[in-house]
């Protein structure tokens, strides 16, 4: 059964095997999984875990950078569409010789603050 087609301008540019598995199944690997290229940044208000699905970046092979953000109790993260008084979260990746696509954020949800 064909569940997805993946076309690129050139045959050398292709998704990695792990990336395809996660695209087709609609899953994101658990943060507890072991990934060789991984980093954690801890701050007072949030912690960012970032890791590649693959063990290395390879020329013209697409992979996924997974970023998991944990927010400290009492803090909030805002998405696009938030009121003007709030700044929506952004993810920016910098590097020489890499191309970065759009970030895929989870569906935002509302929460109410206790009075």
Q: What does this protein structure show overall?
A:
This protein is mainly beta and 115 residues long. The protein has one domain (1-29, 37-94). The chain has one helix and five strands. The longest helix has 9 residues, at 17-25. The mean pLDDT is 79.
Task: Summarize the structure in short.
By secondary structure, the chain is mainly beta.
Topology of this protein?
Layout: E1 14-15, H1 17-25, E2 38-42, E3 46-52, E4 61-62, E5 65-71
Parallel strand pairs: 1-4
Antiparallel strand pairs: 2-3, 3-5
**Backbone CA Rg:** 17 Å
Order of helices and strands: EHEEEE
End-to-end Cα distance, whole Å, is 52 Å
Strand content: 15-25%
Percent in helix: under 10%
What is the count of DSSP helices, taking H or I runs of 4+ residues? 1
Going by helix content, strand content and strand pairing, the class is mainly beta
Q: Strands of the biggest beta sheet: in what spatial order?
A: 2-3-5
Shape: globular
Let me know the average pLDDT: 79
Low-pLDDT stretches: none
Major sheet, described briefly?
3 strands, antiparallel
Total separate domains? 1
């Amino acid at each position: 059964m064909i569940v997805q087609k993946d076309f690129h301008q050139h045959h050398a540019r292709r998704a990695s095997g792990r990336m395809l598995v996660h695209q087709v199944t609609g899953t994101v690997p658990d943060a507890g999984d072991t990934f060789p290229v991984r980093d954690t940044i801890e701050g007072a208000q949030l912690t960012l875990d970032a890791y590649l699905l693959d063990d290395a970046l390879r020329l013209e092979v697409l992979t996924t950078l997974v970023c998991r953000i944990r927010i400290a109790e009492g803090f909030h993260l805002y998405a696009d569409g938030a009121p003007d008084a709030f700044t929506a979260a952004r993810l920016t990746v910098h590097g020489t010789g890499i191309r970065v696509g759009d970030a895929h954020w989870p569906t935002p949800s509302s929460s109410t603050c206790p009075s």
